[in-house]
Amino acid sequence: MRIVLTAGAAPRLESAKDFKRFSIALEATLTAERSAAVAPVAELEDADHAWVRPDAIRAISPFAGQPDWENGFAAMVGFAVKHGWVDTQGRIRAHIETIEALPPVDADAFRQAMRRFASGVCIVAAGDGEARCGMTVSAFSSVSAEPPIVLVCLNRRAAAHACVTSAPSFSINILRADQTEEAMLFAGQRVRHGAARFDHDWEAGDHGAPLLKTALQSLTCTSLAQHEAGSHTVLIGRVVSVTAGSPDAALVNYDGALGRFDRAS
Ligand SMILES: Cc1cc2nc3c(=O)[nH]c(=O)nc-3n(C[C@H](O)[C@H](O)[C@H](O)COP(=O)(O)O)c2cc1C
């Protein structure tokens, strides 16, 4: 197995079931700050070696807890003990190898590419009363139908980020074609900010998140998991209720502009 550490991403375990190899792969861009780069999983011994905490390996192994994997992992640790590669704290010594930085992609070229993906637009909202918060999001996707799971990607710099990601539940309110103004309001593009944006069109939902009564459809989720990726948090929610909804014309985000999608048009 190999722990892969790349810029802007959580540690990843590659070849998790290969118990014959154990190393840390450090992206070349991170080698100047080795100690900080390995810190999520290990403590540095010297430039080429680190002591890896077994709990950190379990935390990133997709197979942790499965008997086959646990047996293989225990055998690997046993082998390391024999060679003196496990210290008194149970940490396992790993060689640090440097891997090529991923090929750079121009940020503007990436944004331009993503503009070609048409998506709906929704407002993610959470909180109660004066603590209500929300933001316009197009990075919303279904993950699983049974059980019903969705995800949204939220910029950590957005004012609503802390409030939405720390709330026990949040709502996703899919906007109608005529709700460009709502989209702009919750994108921080208007003078009103914060809870003042929740007017008479909003109501308190049964599960503790505000619902936009005029939305095409609203879903309420309890927070299931979060994953940091680059500048954003991927927030995963288990859907606990959906409103009745309607198939009216939807607001669509495409090529840097908001438009209308109508099945009849
Ligand atoms: C159409 C549209 C789609 C957006 N999609 C996202 C998104 O998926 N994720 C995100 O973090 N921000 C997205 N934003 C930007 C946020 O809405 C915006 O950064 C945030 O509301 C800023 O809030 P603040 O100025 O109060 O911090 C989108 C904005 C618009 C207009």
UniProtKB/TrEMBL annotation:
The keyword Zinc-finger is annotated on this UniProt entry: no
SUPFAM superfamilies according to UniProt: FMN-binding split barrel
Record keywords, A-Z: Oxidoreductase
Residue intervals of the Flavin reductase like domain: 114-260
A Pfam family matched in the record: Flavin_Reduct
Keyword Oxidoreductase found: yes
PANTHER family for the chain: FLAVIN REDUCTASE, FLAVIN-DEPENDENT MONOOXYGENASE, REDUCTASE SUBUNIT HSAB
Family classification: Belongs to the non-flavoprotein flavin reductase family.
Protein name stated in the entry: Flavin reductase family protein
